[in-house]
Every structure is written in C-alpha cells, then in structure tokens.
C-alpha cells in the first residue's frame, strides 16, 4: 500500500520579523560562541564608524557594564526618527526590527559603509534579551526599548539636547549564547584596529566590571602608517626602512558603485614571516580577495622590474617570487568602496573585481616612484628578497628531504610514533606528549584503535626565531610533519605543499605537563602550527589536553581537580575540598577535642599535586585526560589574526624587552610559580 504523502503547505513555516535570526543566529553572526557574542558589539560599532566615514562622527564610546551589558555611544547624526513613508512607523523602529532595512543600499546616505546588508542593528536587537536605544537629534532625545527583537516601549521624547548621536545599550540573550561574558582584550584589539583604520577617529573602551573602571583610548593621526609600526613593534626593521612606505589613490568612475579609494602601508623587518592584513570598508578580510590579489601582483611585478632595471637581477637570473619579496613584510591594504561584494554576512573575502586593477595601479605607480626616489631602500628590499630566495631554496631541499623521509617511513612511521589501527582520519586522534615517561603511560592507557601517541624528544625549535631551512632540518619537526601527513604551508600561511585532505588525524592533541615546562612546550608547538599548519587550527583540528592539577584521595577514591584558566590553583583546590564536605586546612594535621583532651588526628583526605603526566599511572591518565567520555579538551582557535600574530611575535620572537615588559605587566597575576 502506498504511503500517504503528508508533505503539504502546512509543513512550510514562515518566520515572521526577526524570528529567522533567533532560529539560525549562526547565519548572521557566525556562531553563538564567544566569537558571535563579540560580533554583536562589532555590528553596532560598524554602524557608528560608517557615520565617521560619512564625515559626521569623530568619537565612539564602548562600555562593558558590570552585568556584561554593552553601551555604544556615537556623536553622529543619530538614526532617523521621522515616520517611515512605507511602514508608517518611526524609522528608528524600522531599523531595529526589520531585516535589510538601512541607509546603505544606495549611495545617498552613505558613500562608503561597512554595514551593507541592513541587518546589523536588527540582528543585535533580535539576539538581545533587552535593548534600549536613545537618539539625539532635532533638539530632542528619543528613546525606545525592545525585548528579543520585539518593541516593548514605543518611541517617546525623554529629554532635550542640542547634540546629535545614537546610544544603544543591549543585554545579550543567554538563551542564545553559550557565554554572555565579554573579553576586554578581544574588544580592545578590535577597537584599536578600527581606530588605526580611521585616522583621527577617537574610540574609548571602558570596563566597569573592575573595582576601578579600566579605560583605554585609541586615536591615531597616522592611520595605517601607525598600524604598521604597531605590528612591527618588537621586530628589527630592515635597514633604511624605519618609516613605512605609504601609498594612496582613488578612481573617479561615473558609476558610484565602481568608485574606490586605496590606502597601503608597507614596511619590511628582518624576520622570516609575512604579515599582510587586508580590509574593505574597515572590515578585516581574512581570506583576502580582489584587493589583496591586486596588491600582491603589483608588489611582485614592481620589485622584479626595479631589480632588472638596476641590474641587480642579471639576465640569466630567475625572477624573485612573491614569497621571496614578502618575507619579513608587514603591510596593511585598506580599501573603501561604494558597493562592495562580500562572501556572506561575515565578509571574509572581497569579491568586487574592479578593486583588483585599481589596487594594482595605485601600488604599481606609487611603489615604482618610491623606489626611483629612494635607491638605497630599493636595493635593501631587493637584496632581502634575494637572500630569502636562497634560503627558500635550502628550505625546499629540506622539505623534499622530509617528504622523501615520509615516503620511506610509511611502513614504520617516524620517530617513536605509536600509531592507531583505524585509518579513518575523522575517527582518529594524535596525542603529542613530552618525553618517554609520559609517552609510556599514554601508550599503555590509550585506545589503540583510534589514539596514536607521538613522544617528543626534548623541546621543539622556536620556529619564530629560525628560518624555514633550519626548521625543516629538525628531526622533531620532521617527525611531526610526517606523522600528521598534510605537509606544510609557506611562512605566510598559504601555498607550500599543505593538503588538509591528507591529515591522518582530525584531532591533534597537545598533551603536556601542568607546569611551566609543559606550558613552554605547548606554546612552542602552537607557534609551529600557527606558522606552518594554520589551516589545521582554522579547521578545528588542534586541541590542548587539560590534565588534572590535583588528586584528592578520600579513602580509596580519588577526586580530580582541573584548572579553569581563571582562578589560582589553590582557590580551585579549596573549593573542591569544600564541595566534598571537608574543611580546608593547609597543615598535615588538625586539632580535635575529645573528652576534654586535645589530640591530633589525620585529615580525612590527602592531596597530590600532579606536576607531570608521568606521575599518573596509565589508568589514571586515560580516565582523566584521554578518555573521550571523561576528558576535557580545549580547541585552539584564531579569532583575531592580528592579536595572535602579535602574541607569538612578542613572546616567542627575538626581542627580549617585550617579554620583560609582559612579565612586569602581568607579574601581579602570578601566585604560584614552579621554582
């Protein structure tokens, strides 16, 4: 008997208003994790910056309140409050309650804008359990209030003011977000970046969650020139290039949607890494796009043409590659355009094709002129690229040796790797552990079908300090590359022979001791992954294991205590002991009074501090740190490439003074040190 078809019109759901946003928030803000939470702030700030780009705003204030609500204040024109001609309700209400309602779909209100789809403010409203907006304009102060995207207080006049601007306060919805606690550092880095990209715009960040509010102000008269200097702090700048090279230009197309402005700032340092960041209408484009393609093409062509013209490159010499020229380069490519085409709401890549030739022309003309007028600096740039070319040849040979070694060792696999039996990479895990002691316990405690163990012999090289050829000559790094199977990217994070489809494991877990040595090895490994296998991090394949720091033994049972990254170890231990129903006492014995006599008795529990994974037997290590059912893993992510690159550079680079400054700045946070 044929089954009745029950699929009819009743099955088709229509999501009214902002229901679609609440149903699928990830489509609009990327995720409901901490990244998405912070994206709410960026959406409101982007709108304020658009007012600055239009020439009506010069100050933005962002405040984190004690309850983790956020207030963003700008002194722009203020969102219009007049009755909308079509919707017949205040335009302010339209902007905050209707998707794709905004002043950025043509070039009338905004010639350049970061908020393009008209969803920013309304999405924030939809994902907030409460939102209050105040608008100053026309001599009045107007106010409205919303709850989860719905209007709960109609627009009213609440005061008088001759100033103009918009103030939005919102409380993120804890029904939507995994966390509603904002990170000061995350907002700090993004807002500082925004100030760099908008010369003379003042942005103030205040955190009221501390006893004394923490306030940071950003305002840069040099714009992206100051940005490049900031990114190069802690690095030795190439000889003669102390001041970044600044290039700018624009076109005057008849069609406003095809008009664009280009700003580029470049400076070389003596490191081996490339750090080129591209932006379109103040929005960071991590996947680049047409503007970045135009920049790279022009840079490679101009430097090669100059080297030929000056006879530094001989006729028989091959051209310098883009990787050679960009080694040690720090650059900001910032474009402004009327109708940018992005890929998706998160705007990771610029697709506007007319920007490629525009950026090429601005960079080609400007850089060629600079090199002609600065022959000493031009020779420095070319010579540095030629040295990089020689080193890259040596690195290629080392890579090829690593690849050959990988092919030869396929049957046995590298070093002391204990591989797993399952070959489906989606199911398998690689634990990278320090030393044979921990490696032995891990091998005995693992699930042999899906868990592989690779013990490291000593500490991995700090790849931030050495060139590619030195890194790829390291036995430890060769073992890592061979075990993982993907190959490596270039130091710029792309190209190379990296192929993520060849990853032999979809979970690569760094499992080190819970002490300073273990932390050091972990950061060295993360530096390696960041520089040569960054797509693994982006894909969510890299994790850090979280072994327990204490074991509390009560009779024959052990209760494990794990770090949380927020509290001192001793505070966590005290709380756990109280949860078990005991009084915490730091002494071995406690006083007790029985029948009028005082006697000593042992505590009903003992505490063991685990400094090394080797101190745990295989069964303990498996149950606390390796068993998928009971372990704690921390996924390694890169939410902000600028902040990540800066942290790696300052803490792992050659300049000692930055590590000293970091220690001095954070010394008060350190309560328990391994000595």
TrEMBL record:
Residue ranges of coiled coil: none
Residues annotated as site: Interaction with DNA: 459, 462
What other note does the entry give for this protein? Few gyrases are as efficient as E.coli at forming negative supercoils. Not all organisms have 2 type II topoisomerases; in organisms with a single type II topoisomerase this enzyme also has to decatenate newly replicated chromosomes.
What does UniProt list as this organism's lineage? Bacteria, Bacillati, Actinomycetota, Coriobacteriia, Coriobacteriales
Entry function: A type II topoisomerase that negatively supercoils closed circular double-stranded (ds) DNA in an ATP-dependent manner to modulate DNA topology and maintain chromosomes in an underwound state. Negative supercoiling favors strand separation, and DNA replication, transcription, recombination and repair, all of which involve strand separation. Also able to catalyze the interconversion of other topological isomers of dsDNA rings, including catenanes and knotted rings. Type II topoisomerases break and join 2 DNA strands simultaneously in an ATP-dependent manner.
What SUPFAM superfamilies does its record include?
A: ATPase domain of HSP90 chaperone/DNA topoisomerase II/histidine kinase, Ribosomal protein S5 domain 2-like, Type II DNA topoisomerase
| Assembly | Heterotetramer, composed of two GyrA and two GyrB chains. In the heterotetramer, GyrA contains the active site tyrosine that forms a transient covalent intermediate with DNA, while GyrB binds cofactors and catalyzes ATP hydrolysis.
Reactions catalysed, as given in the entry:
ATP-dependent breakage, passage and rejoining of double-stranded DNA
Is DNA repair among the key words of this record? no
Q: List the GO molecular function terms.
A: DNA topoisomerase type II (double strand cut, ATP-hydrolyzing) activity
Give the source's domain of life in one word.
Bacteria
Q: Which UniProt keywords apply?
A: ATP-binding, Cytoplasm, DNA-binding, Isomerase, Magnesium, Metal-binding, Nucleotide-binding, Topoisomerase
Q: Which organism is it from?
A: Paratractidigestivibacter faecalis
**Protein name according to UniProt:** DNA gyrase subunit B
- Which InterPro entries does UniProt cross-reference here? DNA_gyrase_B_C, GyrB, HATPase_C_sf, HATPase_dom, Ribosomal_Su5_D2-typ_SF, Ribsml_uS5_D2-typ_fold_subgr, Topo_IIA, Topo_IIA-like_dom_sf
